[in-house]
Amino acid sequence: MFKQKLLFVVLGAAIAATYGTAAAQSPAKGKAGLSPACSANAPVRDYLVTVGEWDTVPKDREGKAVAYNDRGFARAANSKLERYNFDPSVIIVKRGDCVNLRIHDLKGSHHNVTIEGTEIGTEGAALIDDAGKVLSKAVARANPNAFEGPEKLKAGEFVRGEQVAFKFQANQPGTYRMICEVHTFVGPKGELRGYDDKGKPVQGPMVAYITVLP
Ligand SMILES: [Cu+2]
């Protein structure tokens, strides 16, 4: 088991070292590594991604809630440490594949998705029912879940219970970061953080990695 894990780590590092990240390759605008339209004969790959949540209230060995430190931020006893995640968080496809993504919001009031360095994301994407029928679009609107509060949703946001669908053709090898901007603070050098620049937790970073093999 350990050897298998190690192999994945080594393989991942080798892929990252060979192809670099999308940010490092800086695809020119308008000539993105992923395009929103697929050619007719492209092999189709379907991925269902669920939005999940990890949370815990750190306790000592006797089960008593304790103060703790989260990545440099002091947190009081009984503070919930939480983070949203994509599951799966690693997607590996081949150059030329047409990738269909369906993302189902299970946890968290709302999210969005953008694939860094490309024009691909959930802005205006289809909201589909369980059978794949298009119900509406991820555009600015009132939150359909009344109990979530009065805040209006921005374009690209989808809410708990909704499933958003979009596709792209993988044109250029590399590793692309798929980010939820609601739960990720992107620092000045592109670093992904779980706290914004004012120290407010954003329950992230919420990121998945799409690797396109040559
Ligand atoms: Cu999110």
Structure in words:
With 214 residues, the chain is mostly beta strands. It has one domain (2-52, 80-213): Cupredoxins -  blue copper proteins (Immunoglobulin-like). Helix content is 10%, strand content 39%. The protein has two helices and 19 strands. Strands 1, 2, 5, 7, 10, 11 and 15 form a seven-stranded mixed sheet that branches. A four-stranded mixed sheet has the order 6-19-16-9. A hairpin with a 2-residue loop joins strand 3 (68-70) and strand 4. The longest helix is centred in the first third of the chain and has 18 residues, at 2-19. The radius of gyration is 19 Å and the shape is globular. Bound molecules: copper (II) ion. The site of copper (II) ion (CU) has 7 residues, from loops. Copper (II) ion binds next to loops.
Radius of gyration: 19 Å
CATH class: Mainly Beta
Q: Which hetero ligands occur in this complex?
A: copper (II) ion
Number of helices: 2
**Percent of sequence in beta strands:** 35-45%
Mean pLDDT: 89
Instruction: List unreliable stretches of 5+ residues.
Output: 12-30
CATH fold title: Immunoglobulin-like
Count of folded domains: 1
Quickly give the CATH architecture: Sandwich
Annotation keywords:
single chain; 214 residues; mainly beta; Immunoglobulin-like; 7-stranded mixed beta sheet; 4-stranded mixed beta sheet; 2 helices; 19 strands; globular; binds copper (II) ion
